[in-house]
Each structure stands twice: as C-alpha cells, then as structure tokens.
Write a structure and sequence with these properties.
Layout (H helix, E strand, L loop, with lengths): L1 E8 L4 E2 L4 E8 L3 E9 L5 E2 L9 E8 L11 E8 L5 E9 L2 E4 L6
Parallel strand pairs: 1-8
Antiparallel strand pairs: 1-2, 1-5, 3-4, 3-6, 6-7, 8-9
C-alpha cells in the first residue's frame, strides 16, 4: 500500500511547497500514533511516508500555518480508512483562503 498526497494553493494557482505533513494511524485503545511524516516538495507532493502496510484508519495532518502564517485553518486533518492494502491511496488537498477540499485521486 502506498499513501501519497499533494497540496494545491488554489488562491495563488501554485503547488503548496514546504508544508509539513504527518501520517498517523488509529490504534484501538491507544489513540493516534505517528507512522510517517514528510514535507511537500516543489510540486506540493509527498510520495513516501514510510508507512506500515496495514488496513486501518489513518489521518494526514497538514501544518498549514507553516505555509500561510495567517491561515484561517492553521491545520487540516484528513481521516480515511484503508480497507485494501493492495491499492494506493492518493489524497490531494486543495487550499483556498477560507476553505479546503480533499479527494481520493489516482495513484501514478
């Protein structure tokens, strides 16, 4: 299984560069545990979190304030469930000044 992400700054029409992102997994009875992290590159992408290959509930935590210090949403948490570890999971984040959107995209 591969989990990847990409950030688009729709207000400026560019990739969201140098945004720290943490990948967590939910462990019943213990809560969230970090399993990977990265920083978006010049294309706004993170292609490798080094995550474990297991089904479960995951969370991507985007540190938006490090990219936009006056952001209305200083942090964005995206939770999703992995059922099939044979599939890839690409989760692009679209940022705008007062909102954001995420979707499951195709894995290249």
């Amino acid at each position: 299984m591969m989990i990847t992400t990409r950030v688009y700054d729709t207000n400026r029409g560019i990739a969201g560069q140098r945004i720290p992102v943490e990948l967590d997994v939910f462990i019943q009875g213990h809560g969230w545990q970090e399993v990977g992290h990265g920083v978006t590159d010049s294309h706004g992408e993170i292609q490798d979190f080094g995550e474990q290959q297991a089904a479960g509930i995951y969370r991507l935590m985007f540190d938006i304030a490090s990219y936009l210090p006056d952001a209305f949403f200083p942090s964005v948490a995206i939770m999703f469930e992995v059922h099939n570890t044979e599939e890839g999971y690409h989760l692009p984040l679209l940022l705008s000044p007062f909102g954001y959107s995420v979707f499951r995209g195709a894995v290249a």
